[in-house]
Amino acid sequence: MAGAGTSATRATIVVGADGSEVALQAVVWAAVEAASYRCALHIITSFGVVPKPGLGAILSASEQQWLREDGERILAEAASIARHAVPGTEVVITTELTFDMIIPTLLERSMQARMIVVGSRGRGAIRRTLLGSVSTATSRHARCPVAVVHGDAAIDAGRAGKPVVVGVDGTANSVPAIEIAFDEASQRKAGLVAVHAWSDMSGYDLPVVGWEGIRETEQVLLAESLAGWFERYPDVAIERVVVCDSPTRALLARSEDAQLLIVGSHGRGGLPGMVLGSTSTALLHLAHCPTIVAPSSAARATSTAPVAGSVGA
Q1: Average pLDDT across the chain, whole number
Q2: 3-class SS at 42?
Q3: CA quadruple 281, 192, 212, 171: dihedral positive or negative?
Q4: What is the pTM of this model?
Q5: Which domains are delineated in the chain?
């Protein structure tokens, strides 16, 4: 089935929970997103342990039982918070406790999910690894969009009237991000700010010779990148922004006054084999609002149908 912004909608949003405050805020954000798109919410927590040299890889029965009980407590709390976040809706909420490692588990789920949602950091792995590592690795390799939630920004009511911001680099790599951005702005009844950042890559804050001429060229490039989307989303008011700055700085500044930031998984400066660009990586951890990393068109094309085998909450 197709991803965000297309005629069909995948059935499930998958969110990682570890009991930390930021993970619970990610659950709230994911629940609201699921309600908006009328899809199911699947909450997962992992107690997978990485075997270490000289240590047994198998937990005792009592250790497994304690971890299972703690995991069930985390899931019950997360499911309760999710239900309270979307009262009066019919969002189907399921939960799953796994002893498999969280990163490969989320990547496997991304083959079928509409979106993966994680917190920008947590208290560990989901328990065993830093959540920052989970968000980076998942965004790098997932086959569906990955949303990274940054603390209180996810539940800040004051951001509801703010625009959605999308980074546009003028290449095919940003097309999936543009698609998701228009769809999210339409669903949220929000404006859309399309940011195209031109930089000479010098690394120095020096005046750029001939910037006005460059600006005109880059404005045309931005307009061409957005062509056709206005007809599909006539309800979305758009602001086009062309700046002489690095993409990271330009988008980070815009995220301060946004309810959602959307970027591609890699851009025009990406090297072969580098799936997640430096801009996306930096924004995952520094942005002032929730950030969605859109996978490449090729990655999305390989993913399939809804998540199955869920355990009811």
Answers
A1: 81
A2: strand
A3: positive
A4: 0.83
A5: 12-145+301-312 (3.40.50.620), 158-294 (3.40.50.12370)
